[in-house]
Amino acid sequence: MSSIEACRTEALGGHVAACTKCNHQHIAYNSCKNRHCPKCQAPAARDWTAARTEDLLPVEYFHVVFTLPAEIARIALWNKRALYGLLFKASAETAATIAADPKRLGARIGMTSVLHTWGSALTHHPHIHMIVPGGGLSPGGTRWVACKPGFFLHVRVLARLFRRLFLEGLVALHRVGQLRFFGSLTALAEASAFAEWLAPFRKTDWVVYAKPPFGGPEAVLAYLSRYTHRVAISNHRLVSADAGTVAFKWKDYRIKRGDRMKVMHLTTFEFIRRFLMHVLPDRFHRIRHYGFLAGAGRKENVAQIRALLGHSKPEAPGQTLDKAPPPLTLREPCPDCGGQMRIIETFRRGQIPRTRAPPRKQAA
Fold first, then answer.
1. Model confidence over 272-300: pLDDT tens digits?
2. Angle 217-227/41-52 helices, nearest 10 degrees?
3. If exposure means fewest CB atoms within 10 Å of the residue's CB, which of 99, 119, 237, 335 is most exposed?
């Protein structure tokens, strides 16, 4: 919270920028660069997405979502590192195992998984968004095995294996004492009580669903730019705020038809509490790659697949962000004339710039 409060204020220092064509100058304060800050995610998402351009394949892409039952999500809130990690592992292993089955696809697939922990109303709702190219490498790596058009894998089959793998992992975590329980669930620390509590979840249907395929690789990039670095709530959803109440827009998914957008009013304390529920543990990666998209072998695998498909490496759309901008030159053009902006002075936190420039207007 301290990082977000100080973001783009004089508390973090900044620089004075001047246009090379006109007389425009403004002060720009430094960003906190905290990954949970709503203001800092757009540049990070833009750079990350540009770096992923070279991994795109000329195939259909699918979007699969793995969710946890609400009761298990409750204990995940107390054991974020362990259960979020298990959520990543179980969902990736599920997709890879079913895809490798000769009766299904019979191929080694690649996946990009993104963790979201919130619902639209800032409630705790951990789930994985998985982006998967429509096919995979044959067991010998000699050919590309494509999915059926418009179809990836049976979601019911995915859901059952995901349920089994996650529950097995949950029992293993409990056995080695890596789970903590509070409130009315304190008794679950005992093995027998935990086993009895888990029993109903082995029979219920877990939610795994597949969204319609993306409209091409360009649509995948557009999606990733919105989802990979998203935080629990963005500034544009805020309606109003004062010392006692915060109002924000949210989508009621229980409504099947008509306008699902509503405005929720929370006390300031409750709004902050809900926001902080979604802060991840230190050094916990919320974007992970699996299969032929994982690790140091990703570039080699992607190049091999392109060769099998007879397709060359795509050019990065629009302005490439791989190249660093010239020293002391800003990416953003002059807001008055569109000219190039240069840094004419930098100042540290707590300092006052010597150059007198009108304060730069900040976005709400």
1. 999 999 999 999 999 999 999 998 889 99
2. 150
3. 335
